[in-house]
Specification:
The protein is of the alpha/beta class. 51% of the residues lie in helices and 19% in strands. The structure holds ligand C2E and magnesium ion (2 copies).
C-alpha cells in the first residue's frame, strides 16, 4: 500500500515539474513577443524554478521514505518465509522502524511458540517411534496416517507402505468381520494381524478413538504387541499337559482321558476294551549303570517301537517312569480276546527286548505285561488301570519278561503292598515326595516356636499315601536311607528360603527312623548337609521314637551323644507308647519329650489318660526336658495341658501340616501378632 502511494506522489511531482516547465516556456514566449516586461518575466521564471526545486525536494523525501519502509518489509517477508520453511531457530529482526516493530515482535513470539510446539511434536514422534509396541494412527475412515518403527517391524513393512492403507486390511481376514468402527473406538484383547508377506501375527492390542480435546474424534490409534512367543509357549504348555515331553506319547492324564472315552464307546457298542500295562524290567539298573541320558534314550526308543508294532487304532500312553499303557478297542469275546492280546503282548515284548543303542553302548531290556479287560475285570478307568497294574506286578514277580492276565485274587492287599514297595523305590527319582510342616506353639502365648517336618507321598493314580503306610515299607530296604536324606536336604532348603525371607523359622523337627539311626555314617552325612546349606545344627531337632531309642541302646547313645555335641536338639517321639523307665531315659542326651497323641486325645475327659499326661509332664520337668503334647484337637485338651503346665502344643487345633509357603505365612502373621491361633491363648 505504501509503495503505491509513493508511486502516486512521484507521478504528481513529475506532472508538477512538467507544468512548471510549460509555464516557463509560455513566459519566455510572452517575453519574446513583448507582451510582458523583462522584470516580470524574471520574477515569473524564478517562481517557477523555486516551485520545481520544492517539488524535487519532495520527490527525494518521498523516495527516502519509501526506501526505509520497503527494506524492513522485505526482511520481514524473508524471515516469515524462512520460518514457514522450518527455520524456527533464527530470530526475526525486531529493530524495525516504529511502524513495523510491533508486527516484527508479534511474528517473533509466534515463531518462538511454533518452535516449542514443533519440538514437542518431534519429541512425541521420537517417543512413539522408540516404543516396543506397534502404534498405528488412522483417520476416522480408518486410513493409516502414521505408524512407528515397531509397527513396521511387526508387519514386516515400511512405515511409508503402511501409510494410506486401511486399518482393517492389517488384520487377518479371519478376524476382520469381527472388527467394527465401534470396536476401534475403544477395545482390546487378542487378535491376529497380517504381515506384508502374508504371515499371520498373533497380537494383543488396545485401540481408542483420538481427538484434540476440542472437537469430536478425529481418528483411531491402535497399539499392538506381538505375542507369537507367548502363543508358542502356551501351545507347548497345552501340549505338555497332555503329552509326555520325552516320548511324545500321551501322558498319564491324557491316556486316562482317552481310556475313559474308549470305555464309554465300548459300553455304547457293547464291545470289549483291553488294557496292557507294560513295565520295562530292571530299568532302574540302566539308569544307575549308564546314567539318565541313556535311560531316557531307551524310553524314547521303547515308545517308538510300541507305536510301530501295535495294531491300528491302539493308543499308547506313558503312565509313569518306565511304565506304558496300551488301549486296544473292539476286542472280541473273552477267549479270542485273550488269544489276540497274547499275540499283541508277545510282539510288544519281542520289540522291546531288541537291543537298545546309546553312543557306543548296547543295552538290553525286557518287559513285563499285565492285561485287564473292560467291562469284565473293571467298569471304570481307575479300576482297569489298577487291575492291569496288579497283573503286570504278578508278571514281574515271576521273574519279569512275562505276560499275565488279571485275576481277582491278584488284587488282594498284600499284592498292593508289594506293588507299593516297588513303586516306592522309584518315587524319589520321580519327585513324588513332599514335605509338610506342622507348627509347634508355646502354650503360654501361642507363639510359633518351630515345626515338625512330615513326609507325604503323592502317588500318581492313587493320591496321598500316609507315612504310616509307606515308612514301614521303606524301612524294609535301604529306601528309607535315601528318603531320610531327601527329607533333611529338603528341610535345609526350605530353612534357607525362610531365612532369606527374613523370618526366623524356629526349630524344625525331623523324624529319624530306626534304620537311619543304624546307618554308620549318619552323623557325618548330617554334618555335611548342615555345612552345605550353612544351617546351624541348633536350628534342627531330631525326633526318635521311644521304641527306636530302646532297640539298641548302646549304639544309640553314641550316635545321640555325637548329635548332642554338634548342637542338634533331640526329642523322644510318641512318648508313652514304649516301656521306658525314668532311669533309662537319663542315659540319653534328650531335650524334649513328645506325648503321644493317643494319650492327649482323652486327657481332658478320661481320668487314666489325664494321669498319664500329667505324669509325663511332671517327669519331663523333673528331668529338665521340654514337653510337647501332640495331636491337640480341642480347646478342652488345650486347657487341660495349660493347667498342667505343658510347655508346647501341636495338633490340628493349632494348624498344619502346612506347605513351606503356608508355614512362612503363619510365621509372618505370628510375628506381627495377627496369627489366628493367638486368640486361643489369650488369658481370660
Ligand atoms: P509322628 O512323628 O508322631 O507325627 C505326628 C503325626 O500325627 C502326623 O501324622 C501328623 O499329621 C499327625 N497329627 C498331627 N496333629 C494331629 C491331630 O491333631 N490329630 C490327628 N489325628 N493327627 C495329628 P503323619 O504325618 O501321618 O505321620 C505319621 C508318622 O509317620 C509320624 O508320626 C512319623 O512317625 C512318620 N513320619 C512322618 N514323616 C516322616 C519322616 O520324614 N521320616 C520318618 N522317618 N518318619 C516320618
Ligand atoms: Mg514325629
Ligand atoms: Mg509323634
Amino acid at each position: 500500500m505504501t509503495t503505491s502511494r509513493q508511486r502516486n506522489r512521484f507521478v504528481i511531482v513529475v506532472t508538477a515539474a512538467s507544468v512548471a516547465l510549460a509555464l516557463a516556456m509560455t513566459v519566455l514566449v510572452w517575453l519574446a513577443a513583448g507582451d510582458i516586461r523583462p522584470g516580470v518575466a524574471v520574477t515569473l521564471i524564478s517562481l517557477l524554478f523555486l516551485t520545481t526545486l520544492f517539488v524535487a525536494v519532495c520527490v527525494a523525501a518521498a523516495r527516502e521514505l519509501a526506501r526505509r519502509e520497503i527494506v524492513p518489509l522485505e526482511s520481514l517477508t524473508a524471515a516469515a518465509e524462512n520460518a514457514t520453511a522450518g527455520d524456527l531457530e533464527t530470530p526475526i529482526p525486531t529493530d524495525q522502524p516504529q511502524t513495523l516493530t510491533r508486527i516484527a515482535e508479534a511474528m517473533d513470539t509466534l515463531r518462538a511458540q511454533l518452535r516449542v510446539a514443533t519440538k514437542s511434536r518431534d519429541y512425541l514422534y521420537e517417543l512413539i517411534d522408540s516404543m516396543s509396541e506397534a502404534v498405528i494412527v488412522s483417520d476416522l475412515d480408518g486410513v493409516v496416517k502414521r505408524s512407528n518403527r515397531a509397527a513396521a517391524r511387526l508387519l514386516g513393512s515400511d512405515p511409508a507402505d503402511l501409510k494410506g492403507k486401511l486399518l482393517w486390511e492389517l488384520f487377518a481376514e479371519s478376524v476382520r468381520p469381527g472388527i467394527s468402527m465401534d470396536d476401534l473406538a475403544g477395545s482390546g484383547g487378542e487378535t491376529v494381524m497380517i504381515a506384508a508377506d502374508g504371515q499371520e501375527v498373533p497380537v494383543s492390542y488396545t485401540s481408542a478413538a483420538i481427538s484434540d480435546g476440542r472437537s469430536g474424534p478425529e481418528g483411531f490409534v491402535l497399539v499392538a504387541r506381538n505375542i507369537s512367543e507367548r502363543k508358542r509357549a502356551e501351545r507347548r504348555i497345552r501340549y505338555l499337559a497332555r503329552f509326555d515331553a520325552l516320548t511324545r506319547v500321551p501322558n498319564r492324564m491324557q491316556f486316562q482321558h482317552l481310556l475313559q472315552r474308549g470305555l464309554a464307546r465300548g459300553r455304547k457298542n457293547g464291545s470289549r476294551t483291553a488294557l496292557l500295562y507294560i513295565d520295562l524290567d530292571r530299568f532302574k539298573e540302566v539308569n544307575d549303570t549308564f546314567g539318565h541320558v541313556a535311560g531316557d534314550r531307551c524310553l524314547e526308543t521303547a515308545a517308538e517301537r510300541l507305536a510301530e508294532c501295535l495294531p491300528e487304532g491302539a493308543v499308547v500312553g506313558r503312565l509313569a517312569g518306565d511304565e506304558f499303557g496300551v488301549m486296544i478297542s473292539d476286542v472280541g469275546d473273552l477267549a479270542s480276546g485273550r488269544e489276540q492280546l497274547t499275540e499283541i503282548a508277545t510282539t510288544v515284548q519281542e520289540q522291546l527286548s531288541n537291543t537298545y543303542f546309546y553312543e557306543h553302548l548296547e543295552i538290553f531290556l525286557s518287559a513285563s505285561v499285565g492285561i485287564a479287560f473292560a467291562p469284565d475285570d473293571a467298569g471304570n478307568v481307575i479300576d482297569l488301570i489298577r487291575n492291569a497294574d496288579a497283573a503286570m506286578y504278578n508278571a514281574k514277580h515271576d521273574g519279569g519278561n512275562s505276560i499275565e492276565f488279571y485275576r481277582p485274587e491278584m488284587n488282594v492287599a498284600t499284592v498292593e503292598l508289594l506293588m507299593l514297595k516297588s513303586k516306592l523305590q522309584r518315587a524319589i527319582e520321580r519327585g513324588e515326595f513332599l514335605l509338610r510342616y506342622q507348627p509347634k506353639l508355646d502354650i503360654r502365648d501361642g507363639r510359633v516356636v518351630g515345626a515338625e517336618a512330615l513326609l507325604r507321598w503323592k502317588l500318581p493314580g492313587r493320591g496321598e499315601v500316609s507315612p504310616t503306610e509307606f515308612i514301614p515299607l521303606a524301612e524294609e530296604s535301604s529306601v528309607i536311607l535315601e528318603l531320610g536324606d531327601w527329607v533333611l536336604k529338603q528341610v535345609c532348603e526350605d530353612y534357607r528360603a525362610w531365612q532369606k525371607a527374613d523370618i526366623d523359622p524356629g526349630q524344625i523337627a525331623v523324624n529319624l527312623s530306626l534304620r537311619q539311626m543304624r546307618q554308620k555314617d549318619l552323623t557325618q552325612r548330617v554334618r555335611q548337609r548342615f555345612r552345605e546349606y550353612e544351617i546351624s545344627p541348633t536350628c534342627i531337632e531330631f525326633e526318635i521314637t521311644e521304641s527306636t531309642l530302646m532297640e539298641d541302646p548302646t549304639t544309640t547313645v553314641e550316635v545321640l551323644n555325637e548329635f548332642y555335641a554338634m548342637g542338634v536338639n533331640l526329642a523322644i517321639d510318641d512318648f508313652g507308647t514304649g516301656y521306658s523307665s525314668l532311669s533309662s531315659l537319663q542315659r540319653f542326651p534328650i531335650n524334649t519329650l513328645k506325648i503321644d497323641r493317643s494319650f492327649v486325645r482323652d486327657a481332658d475327659i478320661d481320668r487314666d489318660d489325664a494321669t498319664i499326661v500329667s505324669t509325663i509332664i511332671e517327669m519331663g520337668r523333673t528331668l529338665n526336658m521340654d514337653v510337647v503334647a501332640e495331636g491337640v484337637e480341642t480347646e478342652g485338651q488345650l486347657n487341660f495341658l495349660r493347667q498342667n503346665h505343658c510347655h508346647y502344643v501341636q495338633g490340628h487345633l493349632l494348624g498344619g501340616p502346612l506347605t513351606a509357603d503356608e508355614y512362612l505365612e503363619l510365621l509372618r502373621g505370628d510375628k506381627d501378632g495377627s496369627g489366628r491361633h493367638r486368640a486361643l491363648f489369650a488369658v481370660s
